[in-house]
Amino acid sequence: PQVSCYDQVKQLVLATGFLSDNIFTHFLSSSIAGLCATFLCQPLDVLKTRLMNSQGEYRGVAHCAMETAKLGPLAFYKGFVPAAIRLVPQTVLTFVFLEQLRKYFGIKVTT
Q1: Residue 64: how many CA atoms within 13 Å on its side-chain side?
Q2: What would the pLDDT profile of 60-98 be if each residue is shown by its tens digit?
Q3: How far is it, in rounded angstroms, from Cα 104 to Cα 22?
Q4: Residue 80 backbone phi and psi in degrees, to 5
Q5: Containing H/E element for 51?
Q6: What's the rounded Cα separation, in Å, for the pair 67 and 38?
Q7: What is the pTM of this model?
């Protein structure tokens, strides 16, 4: 999810005309991409963790999802902040390095 979200956010930021294609734009776009990836993946990570830690209390993924849903919609986002603290910096570093490598080697990306 990070790659597509990063490209989309970067296009939207550049389309506003307020920011140019610089390191701040890359930092902003990759931060948003990291948050989007965390938001999209966290429910599945919660289910995976609950299944891995269970002692056979769930019959399958669907049963685990139903039991988690009974706790409310925010139950799927338990641990969101630690996950974001892990994923956002990783995403920022990845895309800032990518853009700097593109710049260094003269690779133009047309959108």
Answers
A1: 20
A2: 999 999 999 999 999 999 999 999 999 999 999 999 999
A3: 13
A4: -65, -45
A5: helix 23-53
A6: 22
A7: 0.88
